[in-house]
Amino acid sequence: IRSFAKFINENPQRSDEFLSLQPAGMQLLPLTDAKNRWNSALLMLKRASRLQRYINQYCGKNGNLKFRVSNIEWRKIEYVVQVTMPFVHFTMALLASKDATIHRACFLFETLIVQIDKSIEVLGAKSALWKQKLCRALVGMKMELQEIHEKTFEDFGVMYGTVTLIAPQYKVSAFDDVRSSCLGHAERYIEYLKIFHLQYRPQMPTSLSCLNGMSCSPQLLELEQVLHPLTGLVANSMSQNDEVGQYLREGAENISPRTYWKDHQCEWPVLTRLARDLLSIPATGGGTERLFAVAENIYHLYGGHLDEPTMRDLVMYTYSEESKSDKQLVNLVDHNTVGDEEWEEFGSRTERPEPISDDEWTPAAMSVDECSEDDGNSHAATVILESPPTDDLEQHLGDKGDDSSLFPPVTWLINSIRRRFLGGATVTQ
């Protein structure tokens, strides 16, 4: 299929001849895939399956029998497309989403594994050798996906579980779902959330502290101290200490996380700031995939003419200008000759989530992991930064009274996950 697509697309005369076999309302050409993007290979096979009749006609008419695909091979293509399509649906849905996605990671893994199990069950009852071979390939796919799943939640499960907890539509109820069984018990992540909240609370800008549900300026806070020296500020302090408890007691609410935390940024300012940073982590490595695609295109164009440093700088510059690059890529494709599913593949790209809070703080206030006033505690926090995030979780939770035993800074964990995807900006250390 790949060879036939290249054979047709590289010659305008052959392309016109192939298009002449199709009705006027269709006019589709075979797609060629990019080797570093698995979903483009699937789209190539899907397009070929749609053009099966015309590919057979062209090969028979022009004597290009080396490209002819047998009926059995066409059936294989249909099976491959069918068992792989759920992965494309999930990938495209994640890439197209403008809202937070990281809180759905555990459900995504489990749903994909269930889809593979269904395909294995169907193919396991087949007797054809190629169907048995495809079944074994699916078993291998499942094992690899489970390995990635286990490694992900072994290294960063504390983050994925906590993010699931701060999703308003899930909260504690998410941990009763069979698909989230990998996370464990909710009580564990409630403790983590309280620790993360404790780490964020000292860095909260005074000018954005909330009193009685309203954002207060320093002058208003001073006035409140004069008029209500005890009641107002004491109540505010107690409210900040119990933000996690108040949030969880409200129960689940079917609303977008971004909208929810915008609405509650004055009620729970510290927890909102924590939620904003956690929910900004992407759930897919779309950034890495695009980077490889950019690098491959530049290498094919200039690989023999530029030295390594220049190539590297050109790749990073082109990737940073992704909006312009995507527009140029889309312009290379005639919308009239591409089906809806293929056009979605060319036109979609990962959206950067908007900040949850409308209020923007100064650069100094944006630092969520600044050094504490105590130099000794600052040194201890620095040492913890270099340690693995999940090796001694229970030990860190054992003695909450000692600052040196606090859980590793949440910003370290957030940035560790972001670096895996090569896309998100890191939280200021």
Automatic annotation (TrEMBL):
InterPro entries: HATC_C_dom (IPR008906), RNaseH-like_sf (IPR012337), ZnF_BED_domain_contain (IPR052035)
Membrane-crossing residue ranges in chain numbering: none
GO cellular component: nucleus
Superkingdom of this protein's organism: Eukaryota
Pfam families from the UniProt entry: Dimer_Tnp_hAT (PF05699)
Chief site of localization: nucleus
Subcellular location: Nucleus
GO molecular function, one term: zinc ion binding
Domain spans labelled HAT C-terminal dimerisation: 253-302
Keywords, ordered alphabetically: Metal-binding, Nucleus, Zinc, Zinc-finger
Keyword presence, Transcription regulation: no
Protein name: HAT C-terminal dimerisation domain-containing protein
Organism: Penicillium salamii
